Recover the amino acids of this structure.
């Protein structure tokens, strides 16, 4: 289903050779995961390939279980370990990933073939927070718009969390793995289990996990509201042979009592249940169709947040219960015509989001008033057609081209529903007040596409240059949120979506270069993105198209620009000593106001040094970021979404691994060794502690994790 990758399992020499043809041989040795590459030959039928393999300078893949760094709180937290990925924190859970200055639905997040969307409009639960990161086999990150195959949008990149079909050694029909871990800062305890059994020509696989975290302390010794509990698991059954793979699966995730220092509410409950089905068939005929792929999914998220059940409050009690349901699928065929290989397909995504905020000013036991029709039962449906192919232009040059068409329809089914508390207004009344429109049914026809030229400069180096047009439709929150907080001039805390937003159009140019020599490697990429109709969350100041000047949060289209550079490298200093580093810089500009775009990460990166023996390793990692001075922190002139000019920081981690015996490994280390007090620039404002500006990252934490495979 995902052609540009190598998967961490046993595969035939024939399939491995085919996979290597589609990749660049750039294999940076990093502390996150180890890489083993075996050259196929006719004497070996099965070859084990595991670890992190970079297909091109804008793609990363990693195996979470092989990470020796601090265990991740969730999928978004794990992604911050990968080159070019950052994230926003407002508590201990729900780290919201950002790639190349883009976030939310500018990224496509695919969890085991399922498009799951947040239930919380404020993104306490981004899609990555529902990934079972403790048992995920493979994480793939495409930075930028690299393919038309992964659904609409994805202008900033695509993230894939994937479980693989299990493989079994000869003579074995059952295998299992388990892990247990502890982190000192926050008194965090985690467990996971993963078991598979071979049943005839098929298999069954069951996974489960549990994590219980208390509040952590920052580097100043201050307690940060960050506690949470998460548990869940999945069950999958499938068939797999050389030509056919089919599976059905169900997953469940529950997050309880999640505290957020960066929000005025906490979340007593968030849960997700998802169903998925996949079918892949390779064809041996002489016709042009070489394989067909089909997947279908259904996902339901129910999110509850309130301002009283997990914190002290004397009055103005509020609770919001929002839900998001998504379903869809994809049908794709692999075809060949001469030397040209291409994919053609159709995909479907339907989403519904609905939710009310209820309240009572004096009694939390009687929340019987509708304070806001927060999300007025909105449907957002998309159907897409795509074709993408590669053809050799010469022995060294390959051209990749893709074209995508998406039809989008949106409808607000409860926009006239009136609140029973406060101003007694409907969402349509709010839309009319700020934009002079009501929520009519809306249709869009969006065209995206890309061209990419790859050139092999030598046996050990390759370069590429590409251009693309990608389109992202406004998401449901941007279109429809109707959080009504009153009529206080220039201090209005209302948050009002815009049903008349135009879709974002991204015109991108990106280029990259990769070089691998004996003992060292280098990956470089750069991009430029001119954005027409960038969807900008602003404050109402009577701008063009905004009828009110009261400071409420509103959405409008602007022109914007993004550009940046990314670099990775590795160097083998000695036979068993390796140095690895990565760095990324993004620049974002609001061209309408001639000010920086908000929530753009500063120049940042990592450097690691690892000594590795066969049964143990020891390493250190420096994580750093410079001061971010390009900010939009003034709500009177811009969005005010940046909290401050965040100071630069550098923290040091130690990590290690020891194999006690075959199949049993201990991983341990200390994160933020010198107990540095710091905040990531993207972190939310700390609304819980008036002495702290932003939600700080955790201080020093010792951790240990025991892993066993049977």
């Amino acid at each position: 289903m995902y052609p540009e990758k190598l998967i961490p399992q046993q595969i035939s020499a024939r399939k491995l050779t085919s996979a290597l043809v589609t990749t660049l041989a750039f294999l940076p040795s990093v502390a996150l995961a180890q890489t083993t590459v075996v050259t196929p030959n006719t004497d070996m039928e099965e070859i084990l390939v595991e670890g992190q393999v970079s297909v091109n300078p804008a793609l990363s893949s990693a195996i979470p279980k092989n990470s020796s760094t601090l265990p991740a709180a969730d999928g978004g937290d794990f992604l911050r370990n990968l080159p070019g990925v950052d994230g926003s924190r407002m508590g201990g859970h729900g780290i919201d990933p950002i790639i190349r200055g883009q976030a939310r639905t500018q990224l496509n997040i695919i969890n085991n073939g399922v498009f799951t969307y947040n239930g919380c409009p404020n993104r306490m639960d981004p899609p990555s927070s529902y990934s079972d990161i403790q048992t995920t086999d493979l994480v793939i990150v495409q930075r930028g718009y690299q393919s038309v195959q992964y659904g609409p949008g994805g202008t900033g990149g695509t993230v894939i969390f994937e479980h693989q079909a299990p493989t079994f050694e000869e003579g074995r029909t059952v295998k299992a793995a388990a892990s247990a871990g502890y982190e000192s800062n926050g008194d965090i305890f985690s467990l996971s289990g993963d078991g598979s059994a071979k049943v005839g020509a098929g298999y069954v696989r069951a996974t489960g996990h549990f994590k219980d975290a208390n509040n952590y302390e920052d580097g100043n010794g201050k307690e940060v509201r960050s506690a949470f509990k998460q548990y869940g698991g999945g069950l999958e059954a499938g068939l797999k042979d050389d030509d056919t793979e089919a599976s059905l699966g169900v997953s469940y995730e529950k997050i309880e009592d999640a505290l957020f220092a960066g929000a005025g509410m906490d979340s007593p409950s968030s849960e997700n249940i998802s169903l998925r089905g996949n079918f892949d068939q390779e064809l041996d005929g002489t016709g042009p169709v070489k394989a067909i792929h089909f997947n279908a999914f259904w996902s339901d998220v129910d999110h509850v947040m309130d301002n009283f059940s997990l914190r002290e409050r004397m009055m103005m009690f509020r609770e919001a219960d929002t839900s998001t349901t998504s379903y869809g699928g994809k049908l794709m065929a692999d075809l060949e015509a001469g030397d040209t290989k291409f994919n053609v397909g159709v995909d479907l995504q339907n989403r519904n989001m609905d939710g009310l905020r209820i309240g009572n000013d004096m009694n939390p036991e009687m929340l019987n008033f509708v304070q806001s029709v927060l999300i007025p039962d909105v449907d957002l449906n998309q159907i897409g057609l795509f074709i993408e192919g590669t053809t050799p232009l010469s022995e060294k040059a390959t051209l990749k081209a893709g074209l995508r068409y998406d039809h989008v329809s949106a409808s607000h089914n409860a926009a006239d529903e009136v609140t029973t508390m406060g101003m007694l207004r409907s969402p349509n009344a709010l839309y009319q007040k700020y934009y002079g429109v009501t929520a009519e049914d809306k249709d869009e026809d969006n065209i995206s596409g890309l061209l990419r030229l790859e050139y092999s400069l030598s046996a050990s180096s390759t370069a590429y240059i590409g251009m693309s047009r990608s389109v992202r439709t406004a998401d449901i929150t941007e279109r429809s949120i109707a959080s009504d907080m009153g009529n206080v001039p220039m201090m209005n805390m209302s948050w009002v979506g815009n049903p008349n937003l135009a879709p974002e159009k991204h015109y991108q140019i990106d280029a990259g270069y990769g070089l691998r020599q004996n003992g060292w490697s280098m990956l470089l990429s750069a991009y430029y993105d001119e954005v027409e109709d960038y969807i900008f969350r602003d404050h109402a100041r009577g701008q063009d198209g905004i009828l009110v000047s009261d400071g409420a949060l509103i959405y409008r289209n602007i022109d914007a620009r993004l550009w940046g550079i990314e670099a990775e490298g590795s160097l083998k200093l000695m036979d068993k000593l390796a140095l690895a580093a990565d760095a990324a810089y993004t620049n974002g500009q609001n061209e309408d106001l001639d000010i920086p775009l908000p929530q753009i990460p500063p120049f940042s990166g990592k450097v690691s040094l690892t000594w590795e023996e066969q049964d143990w390793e020891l390493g250190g990692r420096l994580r750093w970021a410079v001061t971010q001075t390009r900010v939009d922190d003034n709500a009177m002139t811009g969005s005010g979404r940046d909290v401050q000019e965040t100071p630069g920081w550098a923290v040091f981690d130690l990590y290690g691994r020891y194999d006690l015996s075959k199949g049993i490994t201990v991983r341990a280390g200390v994160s933020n060794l010198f107990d540095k007090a710091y905040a990531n620039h993207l972190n939310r404002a700390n609304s819980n502690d008036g002495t702290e500006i932003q939600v700080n990252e955790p201080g020093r934490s010792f951790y240990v994790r025991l892993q066993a495979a049977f």
Summary: Residues 250 and 394 are 46 Å apart (CA to CA). The chain is about 5% helix and 50% strand. Residues 10-709 form a domain with the Maltoporin; Chain A fold (CATH 2.40.170.20). The first helix runs from residue 13 to 21.
